[in-house]
Amino acid sequence: MDQLVQSGLSSIEVFSYSAQLFITLRFIQAGKPQQNGCIEQYNRTMRYDCLGQRYLIIYTYHCY
């Protein structure tokens, strides 16, 4: 999957690749992160545990 992200594939190519692997892509509504609670909690945990407070502040500043 890292190769997909690094190569900058188009959405059509990602859909095609996922279909070859029998992966079903599911999307949430824009602006509704609570529909994806498990992943949002995992992302938050990883930010706190792996990045540390210093890097989290920098990350948050640059993303928002």
- Structural Rg: 15 Å
Count of individual helical segments: 3
Number of strands: 0
Mean pLDDT: 72
Number of domains: 1
Q: What share of the residues lie within helices?
A: 55-70%
Order of helices and strands: HHH
Portion in strands? under 5%
What is the molecular shape? extended
Unreliable parts: none
Largest sheet: none
Distance between the termini: 26 Å
Secondary-structure-based class equals: mainly alpha
GO molecular function: nucleic acid binding
Organism: Salmonella enterica
Protein name: Integrase
Domain Integrase catalytic: 23-53
What is the secondary structure topology, with strand pairs?
Layout: H1 2-7, H2 11-20, H3 37-63
Keywords:
64 residues; mainly alpha; 67% helix; extended; RNaseH-like_sf; Integrase_cat-core
Description:
This protein is an all-alpha fold and 64 residues long. It has one domain (2-63). The protein is 67% helix and 0% strand. The chain contains three helices and no strands. The chain has helices at residues 2-7, 11-20, 37-63. The relative contact order is 0.07. The mean pLDDT is 72.
Can you describe this structure in just a few lines?
The chain has 64 residues and is mainly alpha-helical.
